[in-house]
């Protein structure tokens, strides 16, 4: 995984197609957003996706629904990414996600987790979202 700051965004990008496909399946992106490929994470809150034509998009990790997909412009050369050891292999997580009323500025609502924990929590909260939305 390639990680670091690109301008104001912290990016976590998958090294290769096999890693990306594995995480897409684990996160259930393949199932929830057919036709999109998972490229990585932007700012811990959004997935970076590509469509079949190669267009780039972002979508919140929760709720992971097609209505929330927006275009994403990644103009900057990825070689200019600046690693930051404070965040390597760590993801900021809202204990109560914003879509469920969590306060993004409340210190007690923020924890730092591993990518494996992130996978599990994203799936759990998306399933909870599905239950509520019916």
TrEMBL record:
It comes from the Bacteria. This is Uncharacterized protein. It comes from Brevifollis gellanilyticus.
């Amino acid at each position: 995984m390639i990680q670091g700051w690109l301008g104001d965004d912290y990016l976590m990008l998958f090294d290769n197609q096999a890693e990306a496909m594995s995480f897409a399946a684990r996160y259930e992106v393949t199932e929830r957003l057919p036709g999109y490929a998972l490229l990585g994470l932007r700012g811990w809150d959004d997935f970076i996706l590509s469509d079949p034509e190669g267009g780039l998009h972002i979508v919140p990790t929760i709720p992971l629904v097609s209505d929330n997909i927006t275009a994403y412009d990644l103009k900057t050369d990825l070689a200019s990414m600046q690693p930051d050891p404070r965040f390597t292999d760590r993801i900021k997580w809202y204990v109560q996600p914003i879509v469920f009323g969590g306060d993004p500025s409340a210190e007690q609502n923020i924890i730092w987790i591993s990518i494996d924990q992130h996978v599990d929590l994203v799936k759990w909260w998306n399933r909870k979202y599905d239950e509520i939305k019916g």
